[in-house]
UniProtKB/TrEMBL annotation:
Any GO molecular function: purine nucleobase transmembrane transporter activity
Compartment(s) of residence: Cell membrane
Upper lineage: Archaea, Methanobacteriati, Methanobacteriota, Stenosarchaea group, Halobacteria
Keywords assigned: Cell membrane, Membrane, Transmembrane, Transmembrane helix, Transport
Species: Haloferax mediterranei (strain ATCC 33500 / DSM 1411 / JCM 8866 / NBRC 14739 / NCIMB 2177 / R-4)
Membrane topology: Multi-pass membrane protein
Domain of life: Archaea
Assigned protein family: Belongs to the nucleobase:cation symporter-2 (NCS2) (TC 2.A.40) family. Azg-like subfamily.
Membrane spanning stretches: 68-88, 95-114, 120-138, 150-174, 186-207, 214-234, 240-261, 333-355, 367-388, 394-416, 428-452, 464-483
Protein name: NCS2 family permease
Record flagged with keyword Metal-binding: no
Amino acid sequence: MGLSETLANYFDVHKHGSTVKAEILAGITTFLTMSYIVVVNPDIMTGIPGAKPGIIIDGYTPGQVESMLVVVTILAAAIATLTMAFYANRPFAQAPGLGLNAFFAFTVVGALGISWQTALAAVFVEGLLFIVLTAVGAREAIIKIFPHPVKMAVGTGIGLFLAIIGLQAMGIVVDDTATLVTLGSLASNPVAIVSVVGLFMTFVLYAADVPGSILLGIALTTVLGWAVTQLGLVGLDAGLVVAAGTTAVTLPVIGTFDLVVPGSGSVVTYNITPLAGSFISGFGNVEAFSFALIVFTFFFVDFFDTAGTLVGVGQVAGFLDDNGDLPDIDKPLMADAVGTTAGAALGTSTVTTYIESASGVEEGGRTGLTALVTAGLFLASLALVPLATAIPLYASHIALVVIGVVMLRNVVDIAWDDITHTIPAGMTILIMPFTYSIAYGIASGIISYPLVKLAAGEYDDISAGQWALAVAFFIYFVVRTSGMLQAQV
């Protein structure tokens, strides 16, 4: 029996209507669309004394700390995604979550003045809570009581969220003081020009049903950007790079891995032990109420971001049942919980399931083999980090726009002729991209559902659990937006 057949049998690839080739393409696509996190997470998490809050380690420069965080980010993503592959057998990839890492660095460590070790302790506690709640079925039970219109709207909301992230990275959508967002200077921005050309090439390939169309579009856009730069027509960023001057990281037990940086002739050795296990010291001198509020915030955002991502991407993959539920959702939820706990132990913020998994699903990924390929590429990037970051954002994020557009078709599953469905579904869809948060979109839908059902006199459609969720979300918004957290420090 060959390797391909062994993998197909282990992951039940054919049973899920996929092929080993499609799963591998899907895993590569997912990795390419989320590989930016290898550098973006360390950049956000690293503190600079007197200039930027985050992780600051005595005796180490910010560049050295950032290099440690590169390795920690890769390891956390690999551990979580491998758990997803082998335990859950789902095509979802995981890594330290954007937004949650910013909350960690700028709010908890910066605005609240909490030590980064204590912040890691809060993330670790959150992970343990998730493990316990998932083991007893509580997380799955909560997700099942999501109102049906909210479940059906999550996929479309995530689609818009993905699209705006991608359009922003491509320079097509930019910020504006008068209108908040506006069209970028396309004709004078080299990144936007190459991105637009690449985007429409990818749309053409996708519409023509070319196998691996999204991956091919990313590759062609990368080559196009490289070509115009080499010809001297315009200058484009070739991709993300790790902190300058860093070419090696020594890991305890694992060994030494070269992190190659173009133009660097030096070899500097770092060790992740200053980060790994540092959460333990964070339990000392903890103020109980403030610590509980921080854990609650991490818990809330991660819980509903993950729930929304699993349901939304599951909808694209055709995994959802007639009630809009993801069968055996407890397994990917457990993978998420394990990832968060392991990530905190290594030294990074909350690990969560990535919406970029939708790009791999659209390429045909249906099993844990997709996740295994993605995790393998993360581990491979330890040896040569630029392999993970050589794809520029404007190229990789084309996938987000294409998938975002495709995910809009999920809107037909909503009963728009029923106002008690239209309002919560519409709020879920709109709030996600406008607040840059899956969790906030879900929260707005869940809060509005019992209110409009009550107004319409349809009392029997509201369960006690839905009322409880609505109240819990209301309390969360009060805590999160009233300044209560700052007031307790």
